[in-house]
Amino acid sequence: MRAHNSWSSGQGTITFTITSGCGNPVQVQKTFWVGGPSAQGIDIYNVYDPMTLCPHTQYIVEAYYGFYGGGPIIEYEWMLPSGWTSIQGGSQNPFTHNDAIVQVNPASMYNPGFIRVMAKNEVCGYGPPFFLWVDTQCDPWLMSIYPNPANDELHITLGDPLRNERALLLIYDDQQVKRLEQDISGNETISVAHLRDGVYYIELTSKRGVQRKRLILKK
């Protein structure tokens, strides 16, 4: 049995009928995966609505594939909207990466498009593509924090970093005790190595208002 074409994949089932002189025929079914692995979706970290992203802001994008078969995955091929870049692929588009997670940087405002990902295994190669439509029209005061969960460093972007906006950063623990206070601007990296594992809350205050987000530290 094989996939219908190079883009097809899915579960296949073979039914065996065993006949002997000891009684009635017995049917045995075997289910397995046919074709390349199929990416089932794309998640974008730290975005409440993954359809809309801010330009000039770094996002962590993760692809996942179904649990029905097609693994193990050895490589992912990504294609980004025109003008976008990634840490793994740079300006190369499409590009391959051996993990499900990439970090992307959208281009200028009003530059929507599709993020496409395909998963690959050793036996059948690439499976069918999965597409996610994304837009870059957003509130320029949106805050992006990554990674989350974080380890020793936290990267914070205040909307469009080209505007170099300033804000007061406060980090509270889950008992509402202030653990860090710092003035930041644009796009900054903050050390959180002195903080223990746990749940924290980030508060940013600027002339535009106040934003709060939940942060997890896991080292």
Describe the model.
By secondary structure, this protein is mainly β. The chain folds into two domains: 39-134, Immunoglobulins (Immunoglobulin-like), CATH 2.60.40.10; 143-217, Immunoglobulin-like (Sandwich), CATH 2.60.40. It is built from no helices and 18 strands. The chain has strands at residues 9-18, 26-35, 39-44, 59-65, 75-79, 85-86, 95-97, 101-105, 113-121, 125-126, 130-134, 143-146, 153-158, 166-173, 178-185, 187-191, 198-206, 209-217. Strands 5, 7, 9, 10 and 11 form a five-stranded antiparallel beta sheet that branches. The radius of gyration is 23 Å and the shape is elongated.
In quaternary terms, these chains amount to single chain
What would you give as the CATH superfamily of the largest domain?
Immunoglobulins
How many strands, what sense, and barrel or not for the largest sheet? 5 strands, antiparallel
**The CATH topology of the largest domain, please?**
Immunoglobulin-like
List keywords for this structure.
mainly beta, four-stranded antiparallel beta sheet, Immunoglobulin-like, disordered N terminus, five-stranded antiparallel beta sheet, 219 residues, 2 domains
